[in-house]
Amino acid sequence: MRRAVVGGVGGLACVVLALGSAALGTSAPAATVASRSVSAVEWKPCPTYSDEVIKSLGAPSEQIPQFRAQLKRLECGTISVPLDYRRPEGRKISIAFTRLKAVGTEHRLGALAIAPGGPGGSGYLDPIAMTLRNKEIARLNDRYDLIGFDPRGVNYSTKTSCAGTPPPNAGPGPLTKASAKRIYEAQAADNAACGRSDPAFLGQLTTANVARDLDRVRAALGERRFNILGFSWGTWLGAVYRSLFADRTGRVFLDSPAPPYTSFDEHDKGVAEATERNFARMAAWLARYHATYGLGATAQQVRASVLKLRHDYDANPKTFTDLNRPIDGSSIAQLAGTTSPQWPQAGRALAELRDATGSQAPPTVKKIFGAEPAKPVPGAPEMMNMTMNRATICNEDQSRHGFSAAWAAYQQRLKRNPVTAFYFGAGCAGWPLPVQQTRVHRTGGSLVLSGHRYDIMSVYKWTLQMQAAIGGKVYTVDDDVHVSATRVPECAADVVAYFTTGWIDHGCSGEKVPTPVDPQQAGSRI
Q1: What are the tens digits of pLDDT across the range 481-503?
Q2: Which CATH number is correct for 12-161+200-262+436-508, 3.20.20.140, 3.40.50.720, 3.40.50.1820, 3.40.50.300?
Q3: What would the pLDDT profile of 281-298 be if each residue is shown by its tens digit?
Q4: With helix as H, strand as E and coil as C, how does 386-403 read?
Q5: Any idea where the domains of the chain sit in the sequence?
């Protein structure tokens, strides 16, 4: 969604991390002849990547040959666009994009642009990622050219950087008002320094400008319209593109829709409430497997156990000799705030922490909280640009609160969501550049909004709010897994059918809730 969230970002950028990248590019066709207002495409060899880079991105070894084969088909290019569309003859920047041409040219239906998550996520390799995800969604490439791109400020497109400064450590236990104020002031000062580092460029990082860039890619490729498949923040981009360029938009499928407004405060409130609601599902699941976890035989008993565990660890944080961070109440809240694929591992860690007495962390706790961040591999593409993330969010955010309002909102979140709420931050306080609001509206054309009933990153009610604002049909995925519609074969088949025929039913079951497994095999780091 439109913010930096502890624990990762949503959207297809994460999919590319899971699938990896590829090597050995080829030159593409000659540049498109451009009109006076359309940049010519500068085609170039696609990037090459070592096996080490591909593995660092998480590609299964068995998929590396497939990735390389698809990269040989990939066409890589750049176009020049105005930095500021109000001054089209002024400074120019470069937008990098890719095209994976339709396999069946005789029955080609057009071009489908993939709008990545973020903001700040790279979409450059998304066409390949879609073909490797599963056999169902790979069929999109049978009749559509798949278009990936790096939004301005990201990866191979023109970018800038203002390295963020980590906030001061609040220490273990409940967050005090004094510690919160130190965190707030440090983050606000960091926002101010970042915004002033390159205001001419950073001030032009907006979703509307990314949509305008994408339309320039469309024109440069000679496409009459773009169909759009958007994920997470890419759903906001898709909605903005559709509002700005209705006559140039074909079929649109938006997975895990954003709300039709830009407010850090409202976003955090919605996410906190959805996370607490989803814990009720987790509690019922843990109760079903009481023999495995011992946290309670009913959902109410599990909730009481976990809430007590949070209070106990806030009152007496534990420092394990093999962890570089203490375990306190916020650690319990993180475990309780996971989604269903992580429930087996999180449940195991909660049970271990209930019984922990030694100086070393229990095995699942160590697996979750002790994993070291992966070291960058030379030559790896940038999958997430946090400067673009911060600038785009803050340029559009309407809620730049002072400390008193931020502290009051945090206290309210804790009161209303006592098991899972823990995050405090300054948001966009201190950001020195003006707010640039973008409004979306109803237009004609085909649109599907794919809301996930229990999603905690893109709250389901936002799907309904977006529908009220821009129209379209709601397709409900009955899971809590962010942007899973193209990952689950059953749902992916519906997505392909929609782009092929224009028709789709009302939803699918989505990711299945797991059963307990060995903790060494249960999910990834939380």
Answers
A1: 999 999 999 999 999 999 999 99
A2: 3.40.50.1820
A3: 999 999 999 999 999 999
A4: HHHHHHHHHHHCCCCCCH
A5: 12-161+200-262+436-508
